């Protein structure tokens, strides 16, 4: 499977996925012109990766500066996907929600997602 | 319109401490530029990150609401739709006021939107949060090109919001939404 290496744009984050290392990082602004077009292929690759493997220690790091409501929907989809595959394919998934120092607001936004998470490790860290 | 009228408009805007206004066709591509200008502008005000992000957030959701749902649109094959709307951001004392407006043709859609906004207005912060999360998880509604959560986001990030539907002579309605951020 090809790694993902999407460079950041004015309205879209950079996305890096290294399947061999089982790491993923989403970083920057997220209010792409077309959310489905932007995130669709990434979600499809993730789904494919989690489905065709078992027992993977996977780490996903988010370092977001802003995300709009359409992107929040994608984030929720990603966390739900993590939960699903933790159960079905025994993956161990760890999420790092990186925030800039003194960015309490982004910390709160991360905590909101964390409230609904049961089977994956969700850690908020200062940059 | 003569120059005098334009200058009168300028004076009205100055009087209302308008920091940005737009009237005309709007596209996703235009949002990229306007958003970057707005961000630069509000950064000058030395607000907390939370307030700054909330202003930016309500602006983006309002803009996207017009771009997705205004019924005055120009469609051209191979190009993105452009839709007509108005937006104005102004200051009053320590608050920021974000307004947007667009035409809605169908009475049915006016009623749906009115009901939706009325119910959002009644919700507490906790209700809004729970509803937001529920909507993030639900399938996108039919006829809704966005995530359908934009209005909830606006309700959550605004200190208060108001809306109005004005009947136009041709039987259509003009929808107006005002968010106040403190």
- Oligomerization category of the chains in this entry: heterodimer
Average pLDDT confidence of chain B is: 92
String of helices and strands of chain B: HEHHEEEHHHEE
**And the CATH topology of chain B?**
Heat Shock Protein 90
Q: What's the number of helices of chain A?
A: 3
Radius of gyration of chain A: 14 Å
Helix/strand order of chain A: EEEHEHEHE
Q: Please give the number of β-strands of chain A.
A: 6
Helix fraction bin of chain B: 40-55%
Helix count, DSSP H or I runs of 4 or more residues of chain B:
6
Unreliably modeled segments of chain B? none
**At the third CATH level, what is the topology name of chain A?**
Transcription Regulator spoIIAA
Kindly estimate the percentage of residues of chain A that lie in beta strands according to DSSP: 25-35%
Verbal overview:
The complex is a heterodimer of chains A (about 130) and B (about 180). In chain A, strand 4, helix 2 and strand 5 (about 90-100) form a beta-alpha-beta unit. By secondary structure, chain A is an alpha/beta fold. Chain A has helices at about 35-50, 70-90, 105-115; strands at about 5, 15-20, 25-30, 55-65, 90-100, 120-125. The mean pLDDT of chain A is about 95. By secondary structure, chain B is of the alpha+beta class. Chain B contains six helices and six strands; from the N terminus they run H-E-H-H-E-E-E-H-H-H-E-E. Chain B has helices at about 5-15, 30-45, 50-70, 105-120, 125-135, 150-155, and strands at about 20-25, 75, 80-90, 95-105, 160-165, 175-180. In chain B, strands 1, 2, 3, 4, 5 and 6 form a six-stranded antiparallel β-sheet that branches. Chain B is globular. The relative contact order of chain B is 0.15. The model of chain B has no long low-confidence stretch (mean pLDDT about 90). At the A-B interface, helix 2 and helix 3 of A face helix 2, helix 3, helix 5 and helix 6 of B.
